[in-house]
Write a structure and sequence with these properties.
This protein is of the alpha+beta class. Helix content is 22%, strand content 44%. The chain is built from 1 helix and 5 strands; from the N terminus they run αβββββ. About 16% of the residues have low confidence.
Length: 93
Amino acid sequence: MKKSAVVLGALAVALIATAASAADGTVKKVDESAGKITLDHGPIKNLGMDEPMSMVFKAADPAMLKGVKAGDKVTFEADRVNGQITVTKIQKK
């Protein structure tokens, strides 16, 4: 029973962390050659961004940019990677 509680607790922490780093946005521009994407997005709590804004992000994996284009509504996760704000996951809505 104790082991189950520990596993459930760890799962809850992981879900909360994911929710804190997830944001909704709209793709404004994709620059595959540079591995960058411009997004209009809502707050990104884990990065201390409390206001909606538009900004350019580096893509953790440039291949993820092949699945999106300007105008797409997306949910994405971003974090600081080597000092750069980087999209680590992106999914069309």
